[in-house]
Amino acid sequence: MLFNYKAVSNTGEAKSGAIEAVNVDIAINSLQRRDLIISSIHPADQPNSIQKYFSFLSRVKNKDVVILSQQISTLFEAQVSALKVFRLLATETESPALAAILNQVADDLQAGSSISKAMARHTEVFSPFYVSMVVSGEETGHLDEVFIFLAEYLDRSYAMTSKARNALIYPAFVVITFIAVMVLMLTMVIPKISDILLASGQDIPLYTRVVLGFSTFFVNYGIFLLVAVVVGALLLFKYVRTKTGHLAMDKFRISIPFVGDFYKKLYLARIADSLSTSLASGITMVRSLELAGEVVDNEVYKRILNETVTAVKGGASVSDTMAKYPEIPGIIVQMIKVGEETGELGAILKTMAKFYRREVNGAMETLVSLIEPVMIVFLGLAVGVLLASVLIPIYNVASSV
Q: What is the helix (H) or strand (E) element at residue 249, kind and residue range?
Protein backbone atom coordinates (compact mmCIF):
# COMPACT_ATOMS: atom_id res chain seq x y z
CA MET A 1 0.00 0.00 0.00
CA LEU A 2 1.23 3.48 -0.83
CA PHE A 3 1.28 6.27 1.77
CA ASN A 4 1.91 9.98 1.27
CA TYR A 5 3.70 11.70 4.13
CA LYS A 6 5.07 15.03 5.34
CA ALA A 7 7.91 15.10 7.84
CA VAL A 8 10.74 17.15 9.29
CA SER A 9 14.35 15.99 9.46
CA ASN A 10 16.71 16.43 12.45
CA THR A 11 18.09 19.56 10.80
CA GLY A 12 14.63 21.10 10.55
CA GLU A 13 14.30 20.55 6.80
CA ALA A 14 10.75 19.86 5.59
CA LYS A 15 10.39 16.66 3.59
CA SER A 16 7.50 15.03 1.76
CA GLY A 17 7.02 12.03 -0.45
CA ALA A 18 5.50 8.58 -0.69
CA ILE A 19 6.43 5.24 0.84
CA GLU A 20 5.31 1.69 0.08
CA ALA A 21 4.36 -0.42 3.12
CA VAL A 22 1.94 -3.14 4.22
CA ASN A 23 0.21 -0.81 6.70
CA VAL A 24 0.54 2.62 8.25
CA ASP A 25 2.48 1.39 11.32
CA ILE A 26 5.22 -0.15 9.18
CA ALA A 27 5.34 3.03 7.08
CA ILE A 28 5.79 5.15 10.22
CA ASN A 29 8.54 2.86 11.55
CA SER A 30 10.37 3.02 8.22
CA LEU A 31 10.25 6.82 8.20
CA GLN A 32 11.37 7.07 11.83
CA ARG A 33 14.39 4.89 11.03
CA ARG A 34 15.34 7.63 8.56
CA ASP A 35 15.38 10.07 11.50
CA LEU A 36 12.26 11.83 10.29
CA ILE A 37 9.62 13.42 12.53
CA ILE A 38 6.27 12.73 10.88
CA SER A 39 3.76 15.55 10.72
CA SER A 40 1.16 13.75 8.58
CA ILE A 41 0.74 10.44 6.81
CA HIS A 42 -2.22 9.04 4.89
CA PRO A 43 -2.96 6.45 2.18
CA ALA A 44 -2.32 7.68 -1.35
CA ASP A 45 -5.40 8.11 -3.49
CA GLN A 46 -6.05 4.94 -5.47
CA PRO A 47 -7.50 5.23 -8.98
CA ASN A 48 -11.15 4.30 -9.19
CA SER A 49 -12.54 1.80 -11.70
CA ILE A 50 -13.30 4.48 -14.28
CA GLN A 51 -9.77 5.88 -14.06
CA LYS A 52 -8.35 2.37 -14.43
CA TYR A 53 -10.54 1.74 -17.46
CA PHE A 54 -9.28 4.87 -19.21
CA SER A 55 -5.72 4.61 -17.90
CA PHE A 56 -4.44 3.92 -21.44
CA LEU A 57 -5.27 7.55 -22.28
CA SER A 58 -2.66 8.79 -19.78
CA ARG A 59 0.11 6.39 -20.72
CA VAL A 60 3.60 7.80 -21.14
CA LYS A 61 4.72 7.39 -24.74
CA ASN A 62 8.05 5.79 -25.66
CA LYS A 63 8.97 9.01 -27.46
CA ASP A 64 8.61 10.93 -24.18
CA VAL A 65 10.94 8.49 -22.40
CA VAL A 66 13.52 8.86 -25.18
CA ILE A 67 13.44 12.66 -24.92
CA LEU A 68 13.51 12.47 -21.12
CA SER A 69 16.64 10.28 -21.15
CA GLN A 70 18.38 12.69 -23.52
CA GLN A 71 17.53 15.62 -21.25
CA ILE A 72 18.66 13.78 -18.11
CA SER A 73 22.00 12.88 -19.72
CA THR A 74 22.55 16.52 -20.76
CA LEU A 75 21.76 17.88 -17.28
CA PHE A 76 23.91 15.26 -15.54
CA GLU A 77 26.81 16.19 -17.84
CA ALA A 78 26.28 19.80 -16.73
CA GLN A 79 26.72 18.65 -13.09
CA VAL A 80 23.14 19.57 -12.09
CA SER A 81 21.99 17.76 -8.93
CA ALA A 82 19.61 14.85 -9.36
CA LEU A 83 16.83 16.52 -7.37
CA LYS A 84 16.98 19.67 -9.50
CA VAL A 85 17.10 17.57 -12.68
CA PHE A 86 13.81 15.83 -11.97
CA ARG A 87 12.10 18.94 -10.59
CA LEU A 88 13.12 20.90 -13.68
CA LEU A 89 12.08 18.21 -16.16
CA ALA A 90 8.72 17.78 -14.38
CA THR A 91 7.93 21.42 -15.15
CA GLU A 92 9.17 21.21 -18.75
CA THR A 93 7.53 18.02 -20.01
CA GLU A 94 4.31 18.28 -22.01
CA SER A 95 2.96 14.97 -20.66
CA PRO A 96 0.94 15.41 -17.43
CA ALA A 97 1.38 11.72 -16.58
CA LEU A 98 5.16 11.92 -16.96
CA ALA A 99 5.28 15.19 -15.00
CA ALA A 100 3.46 13.53 -12.09
CA ILE A 101 5.89 10.58 -12.13
CA LEU A 102 8.94 12.86 -12.24
CA ASN A 103 7.60 14.83 -9.27
CA GLN A 104 7.14 11.55 -7.35
CA VAL A 105 10.72 10.55 -8.21
CA ALA A 106 11.93 13.94 -6.97
CA ASP A 107 9.91 13.54 -3.75
CA ASP A 108 11.53 10.16 -3.13
CA LEU A 109 14.98 11.60 -3.80
CA GLN A 110 14.27 14.39 -1.34
CA ALA A 111 13.22 11.75 1.21
CA GLY A 112 16.59 10.03 0.86
CA SER A 113 15.91 7.38 -1.77
CA SER A 114 18.39 6.52 -4.51
CA ILE A 115 17.58 7.34 -8.15
CA SER A 116 17.26 3.68 -9.12
CA LYS A 117 14.87 2.86 -6.26
CA ALA A 118 12.76 5.92 -6.99
CA MET A 119 12.53 4.94 -10.67
CA ALA A 120 11.84 1.28 -9.87
CA ARG A 121 8.47 2.29 -8.38
CA HIS A 122 7.30 3.39 -11.85
CA THR A 123 7.66 0.31 -14.04
CA GLU A 124 5.18 1.73 -16.57
CA VAL A 125 7.88 4.25 -17.56
CA PHE A 126 11.22 2.88 -16.38
CA SER A 127 11.70 -0.75 -17.46
CA PRO A 128 13.84 -3.26 -15.52
CA PHE A 129 16.53 -2.69 -18.17
CA TYR A 130 16.40 1.06 -17.52
CA VAL A 131 16.56 0.67 -13.73
CA SER A 132 19.41 -1.85 -13.87
CA MET A 133 21.43 0.53 -16.01
CA VAL A 134 20.87 3.30 -13.45
CA VAL A 135 21.90 0.92 -10.63
CA SER A 136 25.13 0.23 -12.52
CA GLY A 137 25.75 3.96 -12.88
CA GLU A 138 25.21 4.53 -9.17
CA GLU A 139 27.59 1.71 -8.25
CA THR A 140 30.36 2.86 -10.62
CA GLY A 141 29.85 6.60 -10.10
CA HIS A 142 29.26 7.22 -13.82
CA LEU A 143 25.58 8.12 -13.90
CA ASP A 144 26.12 10.76 -16.59
CA GLU A 145 27.66 8.17 -18.94
CA VAL A 146 24.92 5.66 -18.16
CA PHE A 147 22.19 8.12 -19.07
CA ILE A 148 24.05 8.91 -22.29
CA PHE A 149 24.09 5.16 -23.08
CA LEU A 150 20.39 4.95 -22.21
CA ALA A 151 19.48 7.95 -24.35
CA GLU A 152 21.36 6.55 -27.35
CA TYR A 153 19.98 3.04 -26.87
CA LEU A 154 16.36 4.16 -26.46
CA ASP A 155 16.69 6.51 -29.43
CA ARG A 156 17.95 3.65 -31.64
CA SER A 157 15.27 1.27 -30.37
CA TYR A 158 12.49 3.83 -30.82
CA ALA A 159 13.64 4.78 -34.34
CA MET A 160 13.81 1.13 -35.43
CA THR A 161 10.40 0.24 -33.95
CA SER A 162 8.75 3.38 -35.34
CA LYS A 163 10.13 2.75 -38.81
CA ALA A 164 8.85 -0.83 -38.78
CA ARG A 165 5.40 0.25 -37.59
CA ASN A 166 5.11 3.15 -40.04
CA ALA A 167 6.12 0.94 -42.97
CA LEU A 168 3.02 -1.21 -42.41
CA ILE A 169 0.51 1.62 -41.99
CA TYR A 170 0.01 2.29 -45.71
CA PRO A 171 -0.55 -1.37 -46.74
CA ALA A 172 -2.92 -1.89 -43.78
CA PHE A 173 -4.91 1.23 -44.71
CA VAL A 174 -5.23 0.15 -48.34
CA VAL A 175 -6.33 -3.39 -47.42
CA ILE A 176 -8.93 -2.15 -44.91
CA THR A 177 -10.29 0.37 -47.44
CA PHE A 178 -10.46 -2.33 -50.11
CA ILE A 179 -12.37 -4.71 -47.83
CA ALA A 180 -14.83 -1.93 -46.90
CA VAL A 181 -15.44 -1.05 -50.57
CA MET A 182 -15.92 -4.70 -51.56
CA VAL A 183 -18.42 -5.27 -48.74
CA LEU A 184 -20.39 -2.16 -49.80
CA MET A 185 -20.38 -3.33 -53.42
CA LEU A 186 -21.57 -6.83 -52.52
CA THR A 187 -24.30 -5.64 -50.15
CA MET A 188 -25.62 -2.51 -51.90
CA VAL A 189 -24.66 -2.42 -55.59
CA ILE A 190 -24.56 -6.06 -56.74
CA PRO A 191 -28.04 -6.98 -55.34
CA LYS A 192 -29.67 -4.28 -57.49
CA ILE A 193 -27.80 -5.41 -60.58
CA SER A 194 -28.63 -9.07 -59.87
CA ASP A 195 -32.36 -8.24 -60.05
CA ILE A 196 -31.85 -6.88 -63.59
CA LEU A 197 -29.82 -9.93 -64.68
CA LEU A 198 -32.32 -12.43 -63.25
CA ALA A 199 -35.29 -10.56 -64.77
CA SER A 200 -33.65 -10.72 -68.22
CA GLY A 201 -33.98 -14.51 -68.33
CA GLN A 202 -30.54 -14.86 -69.95
CA ASP A 203 -28.00 -17.52 -68.98
CA ILE A 204 -25.67 -16.15 -66.33
CA PRO A 205 -21.97 -17.16 -66.53
CA LEU A 206 -20.51 -19.26 -63.73
CA TYR A 207 -18.20 -16.52 -62.42
CA THR A 208 -21.16 -14.12 -62.26
CA ARG A 209 -23.21 -16.68 -60.32
CA VAL A 210 -20.32 -17.03 -57.87
CA VAL A 211 -20.25 -13.25 -57.31
CA LEU A 212 -24.04 -13.13 -56.95
CA GLY A 213 -23.80 -16.00 -54.45
CA PHE A 214 -21.30 -14.06 -52.37
CA SER A 215 -23.56 -11.03 -52.56
CA THR A 216 -26.60 -13.02 -51.42
CA PHE A 217 -24.58 -14.52 -48.56
CA PHE A 218 -23.41 -11.10 -47.35
CA VAL A 219 -26.92 -9.64 -47.58
CA ASN A 220 -28.60 -12.52 -45.73
CA TYR A 221 -25.89 -13.61 -43.33
CA GLY A 222 -23.54 -10.63 -43.19
CA ILE A 223 -24.54 -9.70 -39.65
CA PHE A 224 -23.81 -13.25 -38.45
CA LEU A 225 -20.46 -13.19 -40.23
CA LEU A 226 -19.64 -9.85 -38.56
CA VAL A 227 -20.56 -11.25 -35.14
CA ALA A 228 -18.45 -14.35 -35.81
CA VAL A 229 -15.47 -12.21 -36.85
CA VAL A 230 -15.77 -9.99 -33.75
CA VAL A 231 -16.13 -12.97 -31.40
CA GLY A 232 -13.23 -14.74 -33.12
CA ALA A 233 -11.05 -11.63 -32.80
CA LEU A 234 -11.88 -11.30 -29.09
CA LEU A 235 -11.14 -14.97 -28.46
CA LEU A 236 -7.87 -14.70 -30.38
CA PHE A 237 -6.94 -11.56 -28.42
CA LYS A 238 -7.71 -13.35 -25.15
CA TYR A 239 -5.71 -16.40 -26.24
CA VAL A 240 -2.70 -14.31 -27.28
CA ARG A 241 -2.62 -12.73 -23.82
CA THR A 242 -2.08 -16.16 -22.25
CA LYS A 243 1.45 -17.54 -21.96
CA THR A 244 0.73 -20.37 -24.41
CA GLY A 245 -0.96 -18.04 -26.90
CA HIS A 246 1.81 -15.46 -26.66
CA LEU A 247 4.44 -18.12 -27.38
CA ALA A 248 2.41 -19.51 -30.30
CA MET A 249 1.96 -16.05 -31.81
CA ASP A 250 5.65 -15.23 -31.45
CA LYS A 251 6.59 -18.53 -33.11
CA PHE A 252 4.17 -17.81 -35.94
CA ARG A 253 5.53 -14.28 -36.36
CA ILE A 254 9.10 -15.45 -37.01
CA SER A 255 8.01 -18.34 -39.25
CA ILE A 256 6.03 -16.31 -41.83
CA PRO A 257 7.80 -16.37 -45.23
CA PHE A 258 9.69 -13.11 -45.93
CA VAL A 259 8.08 -11.29 -42.98
CA GLY A 260 9.52 -13.80 -40.49
CA ASP A 261 13.06 -13.06 -41.68
CA PHE A 262 12.46 -9.37 -41.03
CA TYR A 263 11.22 -10.05 -37.48
CA LYS A 264 14.19 -12.32 -36.73
CA LYS A 265 16.61 -9.56 -37.71
CA LEU A 266 14.65 -7.06 -35.63
CA TYR A 267 14.85 -9.24 -32.50
CA LEU A 268 18.52 -10.07 -33.05
CA ALA A 269 19.29 -6.35 -33.40
CA ARG A 270 17.52 -5.70 -30.07
CA ILE A 271 19.44 -8.50 -28.33
CA ALA A 272 22.84 -7.38 -29.62
CA ASP A 273 22.12 -3.71 -28.87
CA SER A 274 20.86 -4.46 -25.36
CA LEU A 275 23.81 -6.71 -24.51
CA SER A 276 26.41 -4.26 -25.84
CA THR A 277 24.82 -1.34 -23.96
CA SER A 278 24.59 -3.31 -20.70
CA LEU A 279 28.16 -4.62 -20.89
CA ALA A 280 29.49 -1.14 -21.71
CA SER A 281 27.82 0.12 -18.51
CA GLY A 282 29.58 -2.47 -16.35
CA ILE A 283 26.64 -4.86 -15.90
CA THR A 284 27.58 -8.54 -15.59
CA MET A 285 26.97 -10.93 -18.48
CA VAL A 286 24.32 -12.90 -16.58
CA ARG A 287 22.34 -9.78 -15.73
CA SER A 288 22.83 -8.42 -19.26
CA LEU A 289 21.29 -11.59 -20.70
CA GLU A 290 18.36 -11.30 -18.29
CA LEU A 291 17.78 -7.69 -19.31
CA ALA A 292 18.01 -8.57 -23.01
CA GLY A 293 15.24 -11.09 -22.40
CA GLU A 294 13.10 -8.31 -20.91
CA VAL A 295 13.45 -5.98 -23.90
CA VAL A 296 13.46 -8.40 -26.86
CA ASP A 297 9.61 -8.59 -26.87
CA ASN A 298 9.48 -12.13 -28.27
CA GLU A 299 8.79 -15.16 -26.11
CA VAL A 300 10.90 -17.50 -28.27
CA TYR A 301 14.06 -15.42 -27.94
CA LYS A 302 13.26 -14.61 -24.31
CA ARG A 303 13.24 -18.33 -23.50
CA ILE A 304 16.53 -18.79 -25.34
CA LEU A 305 18.12 -15.99 -23.31
CA ASN A 306 16.71 -17.31 -20.02
CA GLU A 307 18.02 -20.80 -20.77
CA THR A 308 21.38 -19.26 -21.67
CA VAL A 309 21.42 -17.50 -18.29
CA THR A 310 20.88 -20.84 -16.54
CA ALA A 311 23.65 -22.48 -18.58
CA VAL A 312 26.12 -19.62 -17.98
CA LYS A 313 25.46 -19.79 -14.23
CA GLY A 314 26.35 -23.47 -14.48
CA GLY A 315 29.70 -22.68 -16.09
CA ALA A 316 28.90 -22.92 -19.81
CA SER A 317 29.90 -20.25 -22.31
CA VAL A 318 27.37 -18.00 -24.03
CA SER A 319 28.47 -19.05 -27.52
CA ASP A 320 28.29 -22.81 -26.85
CA THR A 321 24.83 -22.45 -25.31
CA MET A 322 23.40 -20.27 -28.09
CA ALA A 323 24.80 -22.60 -30.75
CA LYS A 324 22.11 -25.14 -29.76
CA TYR A 325 19.28 -22.92 -31.00
CA PRO A 326 18.46 -22.64 -34.74
CA GLU A 327 16.92 -19.20 -34.12
CA ILE A 328 20.42 -17.82 -33.42
CA PRO A 329 22.42 -17.48 -36.67
CA GLY A 330 25.86 -19.06 -36.82
CA ILE A 331 27.51 -15.68 -37.49
CA ILE A 332 26.34 -14.38 -34.11
CA VAL A 333 27.55 -17.52 -32.32
CA GLN A 334 30.98 -17.27 -33.96
CA MET A 335 31.31 -13.54 -33.22
CA ILE A 336 30.34 -14.06 -29.57
CA LYS A 337 32.90 -16.87 -29.34
CA VAL A 338 35.61 -14.57 -30.70
CA GLY A 339 34.55 -11.89 -28.21
CA GLU A 340 34.76 -14.34 -25.30
CA GLU A 341 38.23 -15.46 -26.36
CA THR A 342 39.60 -11.95 -26.90
CA GLY A 343 37.80 -10.20 -24.06
CA GLU A 344 36.21 -7.75 -26.50
CA LEU A 345 32.66 -9.10 -26.35
CA GLY A 346 31.07 -5.68 -25.76
CA ALA A 347 32.75 -4.13 -28.81
CA ILE A 348 31.89 -7.12 -31.01
CA LEU A 349 28.24 -7.06 -29.92
CA LYS A 350 28.14 -3.34 -30.69
CA THR A 351 29.36 -4.12 -34.22
CA MET A 352 26.77 -6.88 -34.55
CA ALA A 353 24.04 -4.50 -33.39
CA LYS A 354 25.01 -2.00 -36.11
CA PHE A 355 25.08 -4.79 -38.69
CA TYR A 356 21.61 -6.06 -37.80
CA ARG A 357 20.17 -2.55 -37.69
CA ARG A 358 21.33 -2.13 -41.28
CA GLU A 359 19.86 -5.55 -42.08
CA VAL A 360 16.53 -4.52 -40.54
CA ASN A 361 16.44 -1.33 -42.58
CA GLY A 362 17.31 -3.24 -45.75
CA ALA A 363 14.74 -5.96 -45.07
CA MET A 364 12.11 -3.33 -44.32
CA GLU A 365 12.72 -1.49 -47.58
CA THR A 366 12.65 -4.79 -49.51
CA LEU A 367 9.44 -5.85 -47.78
CA VAL A 368 7.71 -2.57 -48.51
CA SER A 369 8.89 -2.60 -52.12
CA LEU A 370 7.44 -6.13 -52.52
CA ILE A 371 4.18 -5.45 -50.69
CA GLU A 372 3.13 -2.54 -52.91
CA PRO A 373 3.27 -4.29 -56.33
CA VAL A 374 1.77 -7.53 -54.94
CA MET A 375 -1.01 -5.53 -53.33
CA ILE A 376 -1.69 -3.57 -56.52
CA VAL A 377 -1.85 -6.76 -58.63
CA PHE A 378 -4.16 -8.49 -56.12
CA LEU A 379 -6.49 -5.50 -55.80
CA GLY A 380 -6.54 -5.04 -59.57
CA LEU A 381 -7.46 -8.68 -60.15
CA ALA A 382 -10.18 -8.61 -57.47
CA VAL A 383 -11.75 -5.42 -58.83
CA GLY A 384 -11.41 -6.69 -62.40
CA VAL A 385 -13.18 -9.97 -61.62
CA LEU A 386 -15.96 -8.14 -59.82
CA LEU A 387 -16.52 -5.66 -62.66
CA ALA A 388 -16.25 -8.32 -65.38
CA SER A 389 -18.78 -10.56 -63.63
CA VAL A 390 -21.27 -7.70 -63.68
CA LEU A 391 -20.53 -5.79 -66.86
CA ILE A 392 -20.25 -8.74 -69.27
CA PRO A 393 -23.74 -10.11 -68.50
CA ILE A 394 -25.18 -6.59 -68.71
CA TYR A 395 -23.47 -6.13 -72.09
CA ASN A 396 -24.94 -9.43 -73.29
CA VAL A 397 -28.43 -8.35 -72.17
CA ALA A 398 -28.06 -5.01 -73.93
CA SER A 399 -26.79 -6.70 -77.11
CA SER A 400 -29.73 -9.09 -77.26
CA VAL A 401 -32.31 -6.32 -77.05
A: helix 243-255
